[in-house]
């Protein structure tokens, strides 16, 4: 079972590179349950590739841009 998951996981550094974020962000996402990990026999933590796929989609929250019909900057 261990070998099955190892091929589908990456290191913390690799996960950070793939998602274009810092190592700290990876650890925060693990803590928040946004990334799933496994532990190797040696105790290292690896991120499951399947959980990376879900985190690559941008999650825009809290910002909504609306334009009013009266405020169109392209009209003269």
Q: SSE order, as H and E?
A: HEHHEEH
- Our measurement of the CA-to-CA distance between the termini, rounded to an integer number of angstroms, reads 66 Å
How many helix segments?
Answer: 4
The Cα radius of gyration reads: 19 Å
Write down the CATH topology of one domain.
Arc Repressor Mutant, subunit A
What global shape is seen?
globular
Overall pLDDT level: 77
Supply the CATH class of one domain: Mainly Alpha
Main-sheet strand order equals 1-3-2
Largest sheet: 3 strands, antiparallel
Number of strands: 3
Q: Which consecutive residue ranges, at least 5 long each, have pLDDT under 50? A: 1-6
Task: Give structural notes.
This protein is an alpha+beta fold. The chain has a domain at 2-52: Arc Repressor Mutant, subunit A (Orthogonal Bundle). The chain is built from four helices and three strands, in the order αβααββα. It has helices at residues 2-6, 12-19, 23-31, 49-55; strands spanning 9-10, 37-39, 45-48. Strands 1-3-2 form a three-stranded antiparallel beta sheet. A hairpin with a 5-residue loop joins strand 2 (37-39) and strand 3. Helix 2 crosses helix 3. The longest helix is centred in the middle third of the chain and has 9 residues, at 23-31. The radius of gyration is 19 Å and the shape is globular. The N and C termini lie far apart (66 Å). The relative contact order is 0.18.
Q: Main attributes?
A:
single chain; 76 residues; alpha+beta; Arc Repressor Mutant, subunit A; 3-stranded antiparallel sheet; 4 helices; 12% strand; globular; disordered N terminus
In short:
By secondary structure, the chain is of the alpha+beta class.
């Amino acid at each position: 079972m261990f070998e099955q998951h190892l091929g589908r996981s990456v290191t913390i550094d690799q996960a950070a590179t793939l998602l274009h974020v810092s190592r700290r962000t990876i650890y925060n996402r693990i803590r928040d349950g946004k990334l799933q990990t496994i532990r190797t026999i040696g105790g290292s933590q690896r991120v499951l590739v399947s959980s990376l796929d879900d985190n690559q989609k941008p999650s825009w929250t809290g910002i909504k841009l609306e334009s009013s019909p009266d405020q169109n900057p392209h009209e003269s």
